[in-house]
Amino acid sequence: MAIIESLNEPLESIFRDIGEKYAELIMDRYFYNYIESKSPQKFLSQIGNLYPYLWNFGQYSYKKLNNNSAKIEFEYDEDIHKAYCWFMQSFLNKGIAMCGGQSIDLKEIQCEADDGEACIYDITWNEG
User: Fold this and answer.
1) What pLDDT score was predicted for residue 128?
2) Taking the CB of residue 114, how many other CB atoms lie within 10 A of it?
3) Phi and psi for 55 in degrees, rounded to 5?
4) How far is CA 20 from the centre of its chain?
5) Domain ranges of the chain
6) Alpha helix (H) ranges present in 8-119?
7) pLDDT in tens, 95-127
8) DSSP conformational letter for 112
9) Is 83 exposed, middle or buried (0-12, 13-18, 19+ CB in 10 A)?
10) Which residues lie closer than 8 Å to 39 by C-beta, 6 or more apart?
11) Strands of 69-75's sheet, edge to edge?
12) What is this structure's pTM?
């Protein structure tokens, strides 16, 4: 917290930036095929296979709604902080963008950090 306070930036922008940088760091390692094929849906689906290895807590579920939209849900067995939600939202946005999605709209439907039962997002995008 001392480092964050010394940066004199809002906590939300710091964690959103970390999520974006994390996507830039791991996308070409774990999701390269979906970047090349411009496939946001396959990226979101593949997270389900890798989630236990990359994050190792909670559960991830994905549902394709149509070609350019999906519902994402995270359920955690422990308390989750809003900063982690900002990180994950930013990671998802950047990952979709790297896979060709444009004009991404991530809507938070429910947040476990705000007393919800899970973190649920509806995400839509345009094809790039």
Assistant:
1) 73
2) 11
3) -120, -35
4) 9
5) 11-127
6) 11-30, 32-36, 40-54, 82-98
7) 999 999 999 999 999 999 999 999 999 999 998
8) G
9) middle
10) 33, 99, 100
11) 59-66, 69-75, 119-127, 101-110
12) 0.91
Q: Which two tokens stand for residue 69?
A: 């939209």
3-state secondary structure of 37: coil
Beta bridge pairs of residue 73: 61, 120
> Which amino acid belongs to residue 128?
G
**Is residue 126 within a helix (H) or strand (E), and if so which, with residue range?**
strand 119-127
pLDDT at 8: 67
Asked whether residue 1 carries a pLDDT value surpassing 60, the answer given is no
Q: Which pLDDT score is estimated for 55?
A: 85
- Whether residue 53 is predicted with pLDDT greater than 60 in this model: the reply is yes
Dist. CA 108–CA 90, nearest whole Å:
12
For residue 45, pLDDT beyond 90: yes
How many CB atoms within 10 Å of residue 5? 9
Chain position carrying tokens 């922008």: 13
CATH of span 11-127: 3.90.1520.10
Distance spanning both ends of the chain, measured CA to CA: 38
Q: Which band of pLDDT confidence, cut at 50, 70 and 90, is reported for residue 54? A: confident
